[in-house]
Amino acid sequence: MEQVLTVACKLQVDTEQVDKLNATLLAFSDACNYINQTIDPKLTNNVRIQSLIYEQIRDQFGLSANLAIRAINRVAGNRKTAKKAGKPVKAFKPTSADYDARIFSFREKDWTVSLNLVGGRERFKLSIGNYQRHLLNGKIPTSATLCKHQDGNFYINIQVKSMPPDPQPTDKVIGVDLGRRDIAVTSDGATFSGEEVTAVRDRFAKLRQTLQKKASKGTRSSRRRIRKLLQRLSGRERRFQQWVNHNVSKKIVCKALSVNATISVEDLTGIRERTNQQPRNKTERRRSNSWAFWQLRTFLEYKSIRAGIELVKVNPAYTSQTCHVCLHIHPVQGKSYRSGKHFRCEHCSWHGDADLNGALNIASLGTVLVNQPGGSGLSCSLNKHLRATESPRSIA
Q1: Can you list the alpha helix ranges (DSSP code H) found in 337-380?
Q2: Which residues partner with 317 through β-bridges?
Q3: Region 179-203: what's the mean pLDDT?
Q4: CB of 95 within 8 A of CB of 148?
Q5: What is the tens place of the pLDDT at every residue in 273-312?
Q6: How far apart are CA 252 and CA 22, in angstroms?
Q7: What is the pLDDT of residues 325-381, one digit of tens each?
């Protein structure tokens, strides 16, 4: 299976090139906004949109032929995505532009890229490290995205295609239980604590609250200084969480690769909508909504594909309520089976770490999906034993 990786490379630019890059990004976003406002919102086919407005885009915004096509394709793609989500297309900002093989080229011998801009073609030196050089070595990329970050620096996100190894058949499965107190707990006993992430998020939330309170009561000059400070702090929390998720996902994939095991994770799609309906205080709601479980799963997916490891997603229902030893499902109402991180089974009396118990259940479900696609067949073994030993009178 072909895999596409995105390599972010910083561009070395001079003053004249900065003006051309800004002009190109502005023209591209203006063209996208013009297309979105002019063409019928229900129209999502890029070929039909092109037949209606291509010439106007070329004449009005000064874009090259392929940049105009890329603008049309972006509007069509955004409309399709918004239609699935049931939301309107938002305004396009001058922060990125799409490139294909005719208006973008990469040259490995001097590590430069050539881009078509408003006013002509320009060549840029890449400011990259060994990691990016390793990914780009020997590759002939045909697509990229020009981006402008909040700090004013320009980057080119180059899409690189590769053929990762095929997953090897195996009966071993590592279950991964995702959470907030512990970011991830695996069925082989590895635990990745989330205390540091929670502390960092709480510290930034408290800092933002304090600065915003000061800005509401301060002078014009103090408000300006606070805005600059908030802008400087912007993104630090997100980048820290991203760094942690990269490290956690890498360790899990490396472990699975060393023992030739499949990775099994919970499919937590829609969990925020479900948990937000429960009564919680403001702090818990903020912590839950800032939980980056989707990013961690995405990192696990692409790292697994790259390493030749199969990753399966299982239904998370009852994985935290089920005892992995006897498979008895404990009801939410009634006698408590869990106290914080501690799990105790009411039937077989097994007790231990609750997240480890969930990870073992996820591993069992993953094993079933890998080896028995027809169904799980998992049920409480103790209940089966009781039903077999009970008399017909007691059952009635």
Answers
A1: 354-371
A2: none
A3: 90
A4: yes
A5: 777 777 777 787 777 777 788 899 999 999 999 999 999 9
A6: 41
A7: 888 888 776 557 888 888 988 888 889 999 999 999 999 998 887 765 555 555 555
Helix (H, G, I), strand (E, B) or coil at 361: helix
- Burial per residue of 335-347, b for 16 or more beta-carbon CB atoms within 10 angstroms, e otherwise: eebeeeeebbbeb
Backbone torsions φ then ψ of 373, nearest 5 degrees? -60, -15
Give the span between the Cα atoms of 280 and 192, in whole angstroms: 25
* Mean pLDDT confidence for 249-257: 95
pTM of the model: 0.79
Distance set, CA 332 to CA 234, 273, 335 (Å)? 40, 20, 8
> What pLDDT shows up at residue 392?
35
- Alpha-carbon distance of 177 to 334, in angstroms, equals 25
- What the block records as the tokens of 153 is 């620096």
Please write down the long-range contacts of 75-79, taking CB distance under 8 Å and 24 or more positions apart: 75/32, 75/35, 75/36, 75/39, 75/49, 76/44, 76/45, 76/46, 76/49, 77/46, 78/36, 79/36, 79/41, 79/43, 79/44
C-alpha atoms less than 13 angstroms from C-alpha of 319 in its C-beta half-sphere: 27
Cα–Cα distance, 208 to 392 (Å, whole number): 66
